[in-house]
Specification:
Low-confidence stretches: 1-9, 11-16, 238-261, 263-278
GO molecular function, one term: ATP binding
Protein name: Zinc transport system ATP-binding protein
Bound molecules: adenosine-5'-triphosphate
Organism: Insolitispirillum peregrinum
Radius of gyration: 19 Å
Mean pLDDT: 80
Structural class: alpha/beta
Distance between the termini: 44 Å
Pfam families: ABC_tran
Strand content: 15-25%
Keywords: ATP-binding, Cell membrane, Ion transport, Membrane, Nucleotide-binding, Translocase, Transport, Zinc, Zinc transport
Shape: globular
Number of strands: 9
Strand order of the largest sheet: 5-6-7-3-8-9
Order of helices and strands: HEEEHEEHHHEHEHEEHHH
CATH superfamily of one domain: P-loop containing nucleotide triphosphate hydrolases
CATH architecture of one domain: 3-Layer(aba) Sandwich
Length: 278
């Protein structure tokens, strides 16, 4: 596994370590009587890869959508750098299974891009041959690469990826995470992604945020994966996998990421009134 562009230090410039691209403070979202997010503080800095992990229904997609501005906070606020350009790979794309749709058309459906740009994006995600393929005939891994191409075509400053490796086998997942790492360097963008498989992702990320409606712990992958709350939910096997698949990217990170923070009460469901566990 080669580290892409290992000589390029990140974050990209000192001022970016000070002013985040996006910052959520005390973010809470309730739907009906359910608390989906509860007092989440999270800053996204230029050039970093943040991975949000957590069990089903923990609020990961809701947090991603809130950071993008697609969900309104019930409490707290989210600051976004003005004119911020984002790219989004959604968890589900609702496409009419009856209508024929080529990859080329999918990539230009909502935004105009030159044929050269479309071809370049497909080449970057290593599926240049799929330009004229029908979307409905793509494999899971091909579809995720096409959706990644669609997201990077917008030259985003922040790339939001909601489970980018779903439907992809284990070896394919590692390749895809490597590709995401390369995209981050090539496009100089931050990446915020959700993963269901903390085993694989930990080595490709600068910072892991372990979410269970609130942030249970956050920090560098090797620290979070040893956190008692993390081990309680994902099991000790996670730490073992980390040893198998480890990158050694030599770049700097914002200082706040240097240690795991936080403590989770997710094993004490009824601890707080109005908690989502109640
Ligand atoms: N509009 C809504 N109304 C009521 N509940 C909702 C709504 N949207 C999401 N939820 C609930 O909020 C919880 C968090 O959903 P979310 O999709 O953010 O979780 P997640 O961590 O991404 O889950 P998964 O890993 O299964 O994709 C879920 O229990 C979901 O059913």
């Amino acid at each position: 596994m080669n580290a892409p562009f290992p000589d390029l230090p990140l974050p990209l410039s000192p001022e970016h370590t000070v002013t985040p691209l996006i910052e959520a403070r005390g973010l809470s979202i309730t739907k009906g009587r359910r608390t989906i997010l509860d007092g989440v503080d999270l800053a996204v800095h230029d050039g970093e890869i943040i991975t949000i992990v957590g069990p089903n229904g923990a609020g990961k997609s809701t947090l991603l959508r809130a950071l993008m501005g697609l969900e309104r906070p019930t409490r707290g606020d989210i600051q976004r750098q003005s004119g911020l350009k984002i790219g989004y790979l959604p968890q589900k794309l609702h496409l009419d299974p009856v209508l024929p749709l080529t990859v080329e058309r999918l990539l230009t459906l909502t935004h105009r891009h030159s044929p050269a740009a479309v071809q370049a994006a497909l080449t970057e995600v290593q599926v240049p041959h799929l330009l004229r393929a029908q979307v409905h005939g793509l494999s899971g891994g091909e579809m995720q690469r096409v959706l990644l191409a669609r997201a990077i075509l917008r030259e985003p400053q922040v790339l939001f990826l909601d489970e980018p490796t779903q439907g992809v086998d284990y070896a394919g997942q590692i390749e895809l995470y490597d590709l995401i790492g390369t995209v981050r360097y090539r496009h100089r963008c931050a990446v915020v992604m959700i993963s269901h498989d903390p085993h694989v992702v930990t080595a490709t990320t600068d910072r892991v945020v372990f979410l269970h409606h609130r942030i249970c712990c956050a920090g560098r992958p090797e620290t979070v994966t040893r956190h008692p709350d993390y081990l309680r939910l994902f099991g000790g096997a996670a730490a073992g996998h980390l040893a198998v698949y480890t990158h050694h990217h030599h770049h700097t990170r914002p200082t706040e990421t240097s240690d795991a923070v936080g403590g989770c009460d997710c094993t004490a469901p009824s601890a707080r009134p109005g908690s989502p566990h109640a």
